Amino acid sequence: MRKTIYAKMAALPVGLCALAFAVTSCGSSEYKKFADNEGKQVASILRENDCLACHSENAPLPFYGNLPLIGPVVQADMKEAVHYVDLTAMVEALENGQPVSEVDLAKVENTALSGSMPPAKYSHMPMHWGTSLDDNEKAVIISWAKNVRKDRFTTETVAEEFKNEPLQPLMKSLPTDPAKVELGFALYHDTRLSADNTISCATCHGLNTGGVDRKQYSEGINGQFGGVNAPTVYNAALNFVQFWDGRAADLKEQAAGPPLNPVEMGCTSFDQICEALAQDKDFTKKFTEVYPEGYSQSTITDAIAEFEKTLLTPSRFDKYLMGDKNALTAEELEGYQLFKDNKCATCHVGVNVGGQSYEFMGIKNSYFDYRNTGLTDGDNGRYAVTKKESDRHKFKTPTLRNVMLTYPYMHDGTVASVEDAIRIMHEFQIGKEINDVEVEKIVVFLRTLNGEYNGKMLQ
């Protein structure tokens, strides 16, 4: 019999107790039918335990969700659940043999390891009896996560003992064309990509300042300011999309944005840029040797993207994951363990320690009420692209590589210190107050993510 679970409740009025006991729930072993397919087993477990009753945007509201007193609590808890993770796409992917998100994998694995679902305040209620993962179900999920991570998300540089870590070391390099990289480096620093010849890519994404400009908002032509904080260009090639709102699929598409943005570089078209570059005979000769078709939006952005693929910054933490046990101190390892224990490594996962998902800002409490400065267009996040209300305030997670160097923090650039950023993330994303000792230990770990570029430590 299929397990029955309704939405989470904060309290159960006495008048509903009889109803609760009437709603029976018993275990299920349906997943065992898929003994030869761990992915389908996991999908079956998530469905049979009715995880999608809360963790799905399209989950129907249970009948008591409209009752006085308890209804608003049910609705709020369902909203919080789907803000944390919507499992719909993951379950469908598993059922159809398709790849799953590295972040979704980490979140489901964390739940199995911690036994945190359903929350304790519901687990003793009769209508939730039998809905917690049993030991066998947990074992299936943990085994599946380990195998998928090993097959899809580990890098060739990782030591055998760390293949199941949620964070992975950088690869040695990404495939590039050296001739295109050289052109891209020049174009990245070329102010002729802006309308008034004052702004280059490097103006807002300085290679000597952690790949950012360390301003709340970057300044474009005519003293205009953008509406979100400039993310780092270092390791950006490893992001699953580009920009906070994910409006660019890759580095090439991203490179086409700022030159035509009236607030940033202010050109009216790439024809204007091509004409300016064509005046430089020496550079044009070099360019056409690599791109015989000449200047265009496609060739210019391709060269810039090719250069940006080289901006990988190996760190001491990478050396540790590659097997050098002396690369990190005991204190740094303690900070890393806190990073994992506090669920930081469910969103900030993988090779780039982030950049693999959109996350809702303010799962546990309203970040924007806390900020108390009113909403801006930049606060819309992914909604700006999709126009789906459920995507409002969702942002691509930033990489934490070199995070000590990329201040100020958050999409709005309002947080000056990494310590405050850690406290805010714990309060608004995890719902936990973290003490100063734990904050400092996590900071000690984050310093190990400072990397090298061209053999020199970034400053």
TrEMBL record:
Record keywords, A-Z: Heme, Iron, Metal-binding, Oxidoreductase, Peroxidase, Signal
Signal peptide boundaries: 1-22
Alphabetical list of InterPro entries matching this protein: Cyt_c-like_dom, Cyt_c-like_dom_sf, Cytochrome_c_Peroxidase/MauG, Di-haem_cyt_c_peroxidsae, Haem-bd
Annotated localization: Cell envelope
One Pfam family here: CCP_MauG
Coiled-coil region(s): none
Domain Cytochrome c: 34-149, 330-450
PROSITE patterns: CYTC, PROKAR_LIPOPROTEIN
Full protein name: Cytochrome C peroxidase
